[in-house]
Amino acid sequence: MRIEFGVMTDEQRTELRRSLRGDSDEPVIPFALPGSMTRVYCVASGKGGVGKSSVTVNLAAALAARGLRVGVLDADIHGHSVPRMLGADAPDPRRSSA
Fold it and tell me: How far is CA 61 from CA 5, 28, 67, 79, 80, in A?
């Protein structure tokens, strides 16, 4: 048995993608299109307790105060704190448990 290692060219990668996905076009990322007003920001650090969640919540609040629509995703694998900081973990008073 003989094994060869190498690096694919851009054309080979493109052809492989097409063969795996079929003849469909490349996926379109709407907020990456020219003229899109959507922006994606990431607040990250490898160390805990440095204020990532606080910075994220304050940034989101400041942008919302300017009239922008804001979405926040808390992807902390050690425990989510952003919902609590935004008051989203409180029970919805419109829903009754009875």
Answer: 51, 29, 10, 21, 18
Stated pTM of the model: 0.60
pLDDT per position as a tens digit, 69-89: 999 998 888 888 888 898 887
How many domains are there within the chain?
1
Query: Is 97 part of a structural domain of the chain?
Result: no
Please state the length of the chain.
98
Task: Spell out the residues 6+ positions from residue 12 whose beta carbon is closer than 8 angstroms to its own.
Answer: none
d(CA 40, CA 70): 10
**Domain coverage including residue 47:** 10-85
